[in-house]
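Chapter summary example: a protein plus adenosine-5'-diphosphate.
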Amino acid sequence: MKILVLNCGSSSLKYQLVDMSNETALAKGLVERIGIAGSRLVHEKEGADKVIIEQDIKDHTVAVQMAIDALTHAGHGVIADVKEIGAAGHRVVHGGENFAEAALICDEVKAAIKECSSLAPLHNPANLVGIEVCEKLLGVPQVAVFDTAFHQTMPKKTYLYGLPYEMYDKHKVRRYGFHGTSHKYVSDRAADMLGKPISELKLISCHLGNGASVCAIQGGKVLDTSMGLTPLEGLIMGTRTGDMDPAAVTFIMQKEGLDTSGMDDLMNKKSGVAGVSGISSDFRDLEKASAEGNERARLALDMYDYRVAKYIGAYTAAMNGVDAIIFTAGVGENGADTRKGICQYLGYLGVALDDEKNGKRGKELDISAEGAKTRVLVIPTNEELVIARETLQLTK
Ligand code: ADP
């Protein structure tokens, strides 16, 4: 069976066609700036050059149709007919407390995704549009895979905030966590690499991409994770603040004369390493600037490493130990300096890096020094594969 995996954003669409006979991605692509001037599709067939199609893409229906056209194209396509697509799997950001697992899409599931829109107003409506467009264009069974699902095993003591309990009862204000699909994938891979059942392991997974989160996984279940009600909590990210005193929010709003959307914008889009450095959210730019002596770039990187190390320390305490620390996503997989910067705080845990192994890229690797007590693993994430697997599971 071939499965189309879709990740629909408010103005973007990422797709991948996965052949489940050997779990390989046949082709993938990205449609950008949907409904905005300068829209385009970038399509990549495995082993071939990228194809870029620039044209007006007025909505998600056009975007999904373009993705299907690219996949069935005589030259850069990978299937002869759209009928070869047996099912579609969608990344859905927020499943609230309704979904601890992936779900086969039906009217009730769509209604439940809609109900969670107030918790993820930018993401869930776009995810739903993607589902409805596929319903029309493909007419195959569809599955929703939730970013929050894996974290539903968190106990109440870790997911509640110290707010009046009614805030949870009335508005479902609690910590949900995100990147669950990625944390689940890399923790399963880590168990394989370590040759032990996941039920016996204490793992800390660091998903460090544009958005970033840390997750404490004990016996295959999430004990705690750094993102909260929204993806703003926790680590300092590319453009997001991460943790801070909530009183700073009202203070800054008063001082700067910001309304709620202005403050939301400041915390989500103008902060993080980009806001501290004043340079960029991209770690390659920051490392270059820092090497050239830019002190704010150095400061942003130091703050980033420190915050990740602090979470690792906290989660080690929470689990009373840790067997392995996992690095994944853009910075986690590629940022050797960041990994080193974080691990320099962790000598007390028996963490020691092998510098040569830490310098390698692109595959699963144990980068710990010989004999180090706590293992440090680099594991490239593959959220699309998890979505495809769960889709197959629920549709076969
Ligand atoms: P997203 O959260 O958008 O999926 P990714 O996981 O792709 O993000 O991570 C993107 C980030 O990865 C970039 O912003 C950049 O900071 C970082 N990155 C990519 N390549 C490198 C590299 N060679 N060294 C350090 N950081 C890198």
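Key point: The pocket of adenosine-5'-diphosphate is lined by residues 209-211, 238, 281-284, 329-331, 334-335 (CB under 6 Å).
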